[in-house]
Amino acid sequence: MEDYERVESELLEQCGRVATLAECFVWLEQCNECIESLEELCRAKRPCLTVGHRQSAVARIARLEGARTLSLAWREIDAAFDNRVLTGAVINSGHIEPQQFLEDAGSVVLERVRGAIERHGSVKVNTASNGEFIAGDKKNCELYRCTNLREWHVNLLYVQDGDTGHFATIKHLFRFVGTQINKKGHKKYFCERCLHYFSSNEKLERHSEDCQKLNKCAIRLPRVEQRWLEFGNYYMKERAPFVVYADLECVLRKTEDAAGSSSYAYQRHEMCSIAYYVHCSYDGALFEYRCWRGNDCVSWFARQLETLAHRVKNAITTNRPMDFTRDDWRRFDSATHCHICERPFAPGDERARDHCHLTGRYRGPAHKGCNVNYKNSMYIPVVFHNLSGYDAHFVIREIATQFQGQVDLLPLTKEKYISFTKHVTDTSDKDSRKCVKLRFIDSYKFLSASLDKLASYLDKDKLKIVRSEFSHVSDEEFDLLTRKGVFPYEYVDSVEKLNDTRLPLRESFHSSLTGDTVSESDYAHAENV
Question: Which of 72, 208, 391, 403 lies 20 to 30 Å (CA to CA) from residue 125?
Answer without folding.
Answer: 72
